[in-house]
Design goal:
181 residues; Arc Repressor Mutant, subunit A; 2 domains; mainly alpha; Rna Polymerase Sigma Factor, Chain: A; rod-shaped
């Protein structure tokens, strides 16, 4: 029982002394505060298990190396997507640094785009139902031109003509609003 108390006190002292160093090392590699906290906990958990096997004068080196290795393992095991490509380890300059504010702004812009498109489609429907049908099938439902023409009972040339006129009308009426978005 006394041995366990001594071991716990020794561990607590070491933890308080080196926890910031371990956290900073893992944060340097992962660029993620929460992952770094997890890695710091794992490093000290493994250290506690092997406390008796680590030399007193190499404790800091052991902890730093463990933090680096666990960070590398996390980078290796967690595939990251950058520009549509999955990478094992991301070069530091390619790591996206998105804040919560950036994510909110992107979400808000996406919502505004959806509202704008819905408004465009409604106005197009009010202006000309046949233009709306063609644009809806080709651009919203992504149907091939031949299939869309067949569904509407028109030739492909008529479909192209309606698409052209609908796009021309949309540009004329909404180009400024589109460019602001």
């Amino acid at each position: 029982m006394e041995y366990k108390m001594i071991k716990d006190e020794k561990f607590d002292r070491i933890y308080r002394t080196y926890q910031n160093d371990v956290f900073k090392i893992s944060l340097y590699y992962t660029k993620d505060e929460y992952i770094s906290q997890d890695i710091t906990q794992k490093v000290f958990y493994h250290f506690f298990l092997h406390l008796d096997n680590v030399k007193k004068d190499s404790i800091r080196a052991y902890l730093i190396r463990s933090a680096r290795n666990l960070s590398y393992n996390w980078l290796r095991d967690t595939k990251r997507e950058v520009n549509g490509v999955l990478l094992d380890i991301i070069p530091e300059e390619n790591v996206p640094q998105y804040s919560t504010e950036d994510e909110y702004i992107r979400d808000e812009e996406e919502r505004e785009r959806k509202v704008f498109v819905a408004m465009l489609m409604e106005r197009l429907r009010e202006e000309n139902e046949s233009w709306y049908d063609v644009v809806n099938l080709v651009f919203c439902m992504e149907k091939p031109h031949d299939l869309a023409a067949k569904e509407l009972g028109i030739t492909r040339e008529v479909l192209y003509n309606r698409l052209y006129r609908a796009k021309k009308w949309l540009r004329k009426k909404f180009e400024d609003e589109y460019n602001k978005l």
